[in-house]
Every structure is written in structure tokens, then in C-alpha cells.
Amino acid sequence: MSRVALVTGGSRGIGAAIAKALQAAGYTVAANYAGNDEAAAKFTEETGIKTYKWSVADYDACVEGIAKVEAELGPVDVLVNNAGITRDAPFHKMTREQWQQVMDTNLSGVFNMTHPLWPGMRERKFGRVINISSINGQKGQFGQANYSAAKAGDIGFTKALAQEGARAGVTVNAICPGYVATEMVMAVPEKVRESIIATIPVGRLGEPEDIARCVVFLASDDAGFITGSTITANGGQYLT
Ligand code: CAA
């Protein structure tokens, strides 16, 4: 029987590429999404990948949603915490809501999804938790005090949990994408975006598939000795 992978924010952008790449690698894939029904329906129609709607910011909704996925597809072996939002603003203009929304989704969302799945992964002695952090969690970004803090938090979470999962066969890793050609990055003002691209040594934005290939590797049996690590995939924009 094929392993089951659950990808949050899996119907669009980087998450959709991850879901498709895992499907191509033989996994049974579930894609969670929070809001865009139309995009989710189109994604299912095109790929055959089932989509499930709930907000990762809501713990109870995660418990309920995960139970539904597991009832339909079987125990989740691979969790990809990809769902993320931006609420960019210079700090002097940032509201508490902008801070809280980003924390709730990008940091607490990772707790909310991993916590209910953790006991099962430990019991079955196999699991893969792959957290999609960001270059901006590594280097910080003007206008993203909220996002950078949450994404840096995801890396700390990864390193701590990796130590707890290791003996139980559960690996926990992070991937830090750089600027990837998705709606999120295209929403950055064009002039700002152009100035960012100028700082990427490979001379282009990343493709969602650049990140998806990292996920497929970390999910595989071949990556069993890799835990607590961060894969940096940013075209050379920031060297860690
Ligand atoms: N460094 C220094 N100064 C900067 C700056 C930077 N990187 N970016 C903007 N500024 C300055 C501007 O030059 C301007 O200065 P002046 O007023 O002296 O001309 C000032 O900041 C702009 O201030 P505003 O009050 O006009 O700012 P704003 O309310 O228009 O907001 C912003 C600006 C939201 C930060 C906007 O510049 C922006 O969206 N920047 C992009 C942030 C970014 O990179 N987000 C990443 C999104 S993609 C993502 O998050 C995915 C991922 O993981 C990589």
C-alpha cells in the first residue's frame, strides 16, 4: 500500500507542486486548503488529488480534518506544513491583527497540524514532517517582521522536534524556499520584486517544482538519516 501524504495549502502555489510531485512519486496525497473553493475544485479535477477544507490556524478544525483524511485514505505518514500567508507592512504600520494572523497560520498552524499526527507517527515508528519555512525566516525582510518571526520559529520547532522524533523513526526537516514564482511573490509591488530578483545569483525566481523536488527527497526512505536540517533553496540569494 502506498504511503499517505498530507500537504497543507496544497491546492495552489508551491503546495500544489508538492502535492503533484508526491503523487507522481507514488504517494496517496491529500491536499488541505483554507479558502479558495474554485482553485481546489479545479486542482482536484486536474490531478485527481482530494482536497479538504479547513484552516490550519484552528486546532480543533485540524483535529477534525485530519480524522477525515485518515478515515478516507489511511494514517498519514508524511505531513508537509506548507500553508502560509503574508500580511506585509513596515513595523510602524503593522497592526496587531497582521501580526496575529501570520503567527496563527504560519507558526501555530505548524503546531496545530503536527500535534494531532505525532502520536500515530511515533507508534507506527515512521513519519516525515516537512516544514516549509522561508529565506525570510533566515535573513529577515523589510516589511515582514511578522512573517520572518513566524518562519524563523518554524526552524526552531523543526530542530527541537527532530530530536524527539529521531528514536521513533520520525524525521522533521525544514525547507527554506527563496523567492518562487507564485501568486504570493507576484503580489509584491513590481518595482520591489525586480529589485529582489536582481539580488538572486541564478538570475531568476524559483519554480514551485524546485521546492517540490526537495520535499520528495526528504519524504523518501533515502533521507532517513537527515533530521533537524534545513534545506536552503533560494538560487544563491542568501547563503547560510
Ligand atoms: N530596505 C530599506 N528600505 C525599504 C525597503 C528595504 N528592503 N523596502 C522599502 N523600503 C523603504 C522605501 O524605500 C520607502 O522609503 P521612503 O519612504 O524613504 O521612500 C519606504 O520603505 C516605504 O515605506 P512605505 O510607508 O511607503 O511602505 P508601504 O506601506 O508601501 O509598504 C512594503 C512597503 C509592504 C514593505 C513593500 O515594500 C513590500 O511589499 N515589500 C516586499 C516585502 C517582501 O519582500 N515580501 C515578501 C513576500 S513573498 C514571501 O514572503 C514568500 C517568501 O517566503 C519569500
Automatic annotation (TrEMBL):
Keyword presence, Mitochondrion: no
All copies of domain Ketoreductase, residue ranges: 3-178
GO BP field: monocarboxylic acid metabolic process; poly-hydroxybutyrate biosynthetic process
GO terms assigned for molecular function: acetoacetyl-CoA reductase activity
Signal peptide: none
Keywords assigned by UniProt, alphabetized: Oxidoreductase
Record flagged with keyword Cell inner membrane: no
A Pfam family: adh_short_C2
Domain of life: Bacteria
GO cellular component, one term: cytoplasm
PANTHER family found in the cross-reference section: 3-OXOACYL-(ACYL-CARRIER-PROTEIN) REDUCTASE (PTHR42879), 3-OXOACYL-[ACYL-CARRIER-PROTEIN] REDUCTASE FABG (PTHR42879:SF2)
UniProt similarity note: Belongs to the short-chain dehydrogenases/reductases (SDR) family.
Name of the protein in its database record: 3-oxoacyl-[acyl-carrier-protein] reductase
Higher taxonomy: Bacteria, Pseudomonadati, Pseudomonadota, Alphaproteobacteria, Rhodobacterales
